[in-house]
Amino acid sequence: MKTLERLLLVDDDAFTNLFNKIVLEKAKIANDIKVFQDAREALKYLERGTENVDLILLDINMPLMNGWQFLEEHEKLEENKKVHIIMMLSSSISNEDIKRAKDIPAIKKFIRKPLSSETIKEILEIC
């Protein structure tokens, strides 16, 4: 099974992040998993550009900066600081959110929470 070097979890819910991190660590999907409860902090991390990131799992509904706003700002980053595989990891059941995600080339998949071993396999197939 492929192992990613670094993955970012961006979700404002601490419990969800803890659960997802445990599931991801158990699956050994990445050598390093960074967790951000504030999308602005995740963006600052990427702006510094000190470490390569293979994948972002991004929530939609977050305070201060939601997933859509994060994506808008991410597009403004220098090319070498952008992450080329982003997946929405959301509890949203809105058809509008799903359609919007499909219309954004940076988003490779829309995943409904919670993460499972099956969705992790799907993630790795894309990465």
Describe this structure in words.
With 127 residues, the chain is of the alpha/beta class. It has a single domain (4-126), classed as Rossmann fold. 40% of the residues lie in helices and 23% in strands. It contains five helices and five strands; from the N terminus they run βαβαβαβαβα. It has helices spanning 14-27, 39-48, 67-75, 95-102, 117-126; strands at residues 4-10, 30-36, 55-58, 86-90, 107-112. A five-stranded parallel β-sheet has the order 2-1-3-4-5, sandwiched between helices. Strand 4 (86-90), helix 4 and strand 5 form a beta-alpha-beta unit. Helix 2 runs parallel beside helix 3. The protein is globular and about 35 Å long.
Number of domains: 1
Sketch the topology as an H/E string, one letter per element. EHEHEHEHEH
Beta-strand segment tally: 5
Number of helices: 5
Which outline best applies? globular
What's the CATH H-level superfamily name? Response regulator
Mean of residue pLDDT values:
93
Radius of gyration: 13 Å
Determine the CATH topology: Rossmann fold
Proportion of strand residues: 15-25%
The computed structural class is alpha/beta
Q: Low-confidence segments, ≥5 residues, pLDDT <50?
A: none
CATH class: Alpha Beta
End-to-end gap: 11 Å
Major β-sheet strand ordering? 2-1-3-4-5
- Relative helix content: 40-55%
CATH architecture: 3-Layer(aba) Sandwich
